[in-house]
Write a structure and sequence with these properties.
Elements (H helix, E strand, L loop, with lengths): L7 H24 L2 H27 L14 H29 L8 H23 L14 H5 L12 H8 L1 H41 L9 H36 L9 H9 L4 E13 L2 E10 L2 H17 L4 E8 L31
Parallel strand pairs: 2-3
Antiparallel strand pairs: 1-2
Helix pairs in contact: 1-2, 1-4, 2-3, 2-7, 2-8, 3-8, 4-7, 6-7, 7-8
């Protein structure tokens, strides 16, 4: 039975990850393996990623506090940020311990534990990755914050750039060829993305398994290169694992930070959007245009639009809405500003609120009003 409307499969995977991560943590302490310790941290990171949508769904069923005007829209983004920062801090602490281990190496203990945990980690992470792919997600339940899926999937009215090349002409004359080429390119990208995701999900487990296997070989004679290199193997591979985890999580951390800073999404050209809004018939000027992501699925915008009269704004409001929709922005707030015919271009408001709020106006308050 689903809990808070969440799939039971997700809850099963969360429980399995919790138990397996705890087991890896215990095994890493018994074997004194930094590589296996990082693998347990990776399992914790994936568990937090899976748990945030569950928490958001449960909170969505409860009354929303009045202070949360956007409810829990950004809870998953905040959870991703916390999980990423936690993983980065743990990678840094393990890296410091690995450097210390390299300077004063000591023997490895119980190599069978990393072998068992590494093999189990490959199975668990690979199964989880394939399950998430089957439901159309990455490590989190929502699309990547920077994927731009919401914008690319929305119907657009963007003019196609002119290309005089022979390939462009052939595609215009043969739309089927263009679709086939686009489908092949998209399929290749999906396959590459899947392979990269599989590699990232099982890398730490594979390295922990390799450390255990290399330490389980029969004892080499003293003075051989194999005997001398073994103490440096675990800390060296743990540094490699930490570097791989940092490289994998850094882009997602950047996207989370940009979202929380309310930056303009990469898929939106703010200058082009301003020009398209200003080109709408009946619009005199556009200013104070802001575009930002509220969450991975929702893009908001606000703008001040100068028109000649209230009747003129009522006529152009539908055109403005269609421009925003064509850019993938389906929640836009437009504040009209009406100017008198004599004041067109001088930014003098027709509706002034009085001296008490003159300093807060975005346009000049007429003197003597």
């Amino acid at each position: 039975m689903a809990v808070c409307g969440v799939s039971p499969n997700r809850l099963v995977w969360m429980g399995l990850l919790f138990l397996f991560g705890l087991l890896e943590l215990v095994f890493s302490q018994l074997a004194d393996s930094l590589t296996l310790l990082l693998d347990s941290f990776h399992s914790l990171w994936v568990l937090l990623d899976l748990a945030m949508p569950v928490l958001a769904e449960c909170l969505a069923r409860r009354p929303v506090p009045s202070a949360h005007t956007f409810a829990w829209e950004r809870l998953v983004a905040v959870g991703c940020l916390v999980a990423d920062v936690l993983l980065l801090s743990l990678c840094c602490s393990v890296s410091v311990a690995a450097v210390s281990r390299l300077l004063s190496p000591h023997p490895f203990h119980r190599p069978t534990l990393p072998i068992a945990a590494g093999a189990g980690g490959i199975v668990v992470n690979l199964g989880l990755h394939l399950w998430l792919r089957s439901i159309g997600g990455g490590w989190s339940s929502s699309p990547s914050l920077g994927s731009g899926q919401d914008l690319r999937d929305s119907p657009g009215e963007h003019p196609r750039p002119k290309d005089k090349s022979a390939d462009s002409t052939r595609w215009e004359n043969d739309p089927a060829a263009a679709r086939d080429t686009a489908d092949r390119g998209a399929q290749g990208k999906r396959i590459l993305s899947c392979l990269v995701g599989v590699g990232q999900s099982v890398l730490s487990s594979v390295l922990a398994l390799a450390v255990g296997f290399l330490h389980s070989f029969p004892a080499a004679p003293a003075g051989s290169w194999h005997k001398d290199c073994l103490p440096y193997l675990d800390p060296g591979l743990s540094l490699l694992t930490a570097l791989a985890l940092v490289i994998g999580v850094a882009p997602r951390l950047k996207v989370s930070v940009l979202l929380l800073l309310e930056c303009v999404p990469e898929q939106v050209d703010l200058r082009r959007l301003t020009e398209r809004l200003a080109a709408v018939s009946g619009v005199v000027a556009v200013h104070e245009l802001h575009v930002w992501r509220l969450s991975s699925r929702r893009v908001l915008a606000s703008a001040h639009v100068q028109c000649r009269s209230l009747v003129g704004f009522a006529r152009v409001s539908g055109d403005l809405r269609r421009v925003f929709d064509s850019e993938g922005i389906h929640s836009a707030t437009v504040q009209p500003e009406f100017i008198s015919p004599a004041g067109i271009g001088s930014k003098v408001c027709q509706l002034a609120c009085g001296p008490q709020c003159a300093k807060k106006l975005c346009c000049e308050w007429p003197k003597g009003a």
